Amino acid sequence: MNVAVAQDANGPRVCLCVDDFGLHDGINHAVFALLRLQRVQAVSVMVGGSTWEQGARALRRYDPQQLDVGLHLDLTECPLPPMAKQTHRHLLLRVYSRSLDAHALRDQIDAQLDAFEQAMGRAPVYVDGHQHVHQLPMIRDALLQVIAHRYPVNPPWLRSTRSPQAAAHLDLRTQFKSRIIDLLGNHALSARAKRIGVQQNARLLGVYDFRGDAASYRRRVQYWLSAAEDGDVLMCHPGLPSHMQDAIAAARHVEFAMLLAPEFEAMLAAAQVRLLPMSRILANPR
Q1: Among 19, 145, 160, 143, which residue's Cα sits nearest to residue 77?
Q2: Model confidence over 21-30: pLDDT tens digits?
Q3: pTM metric for this prediction
Q4: Domains of the chain: which residue ranges?
Q5: N or C end of the chain, less CB within 10 A?
């Protein structure tokens, strides 16, 4: 069953986006399994990841009309040399103290876009950020400057982290994290992006603290689908076991099992959600 076209044509159109492709082989294998079932419409790639280049060779064979492939801008986990790996907290301190080298930052963004284009043979359809760094002070300005310079026509869309409305039946930690991510720079990024004609998704679903069992993740997915509005992105982080250390490995396994299960298809139908690439949603606004 093709879940991308099976639901009510009047229901909300949502893009299911997998983050962290290329970080390790377990994530890549999970992505390709979900792609075979047409459960994924966007893949965010980390060009500094250990399995990016081999994964890109397979990823580029997918029809760009059916799958958005974007750059998952990474300044913490595995940025490209000469930028060193750093914690998210350290990066936050540097951007809010304005101590990050703006020239080096633009060079890093350009280098990651170069690596993407070299491997994929085309520009990214969108750009977002690992740990949402693309919206932070300094980084959002550098990113938009690079995008305006490199892609004056048909620029990539940018991920908005605008949070959905709070829900009484959703745990407070999940609501709090979603709101904090939004407050860390979404409004400023969206205002600047709009001024230069860069499109964005409506809201970001899928934010949680990576805790809990399969039942708690199922409840979250049900809420996100029931609350979905046209043009939302549903972010996910599925993965299979890997020899590499991964701080959210357990959550990745839970997410993969949920997205792979026939139950997920039934949840989509119940919520009347249609899964489509965001580029197609943005090209045909309601």
Answers
A1: 19
A2: 999 999 999 9
A3: 0.94
A4: 13-283
A5: C
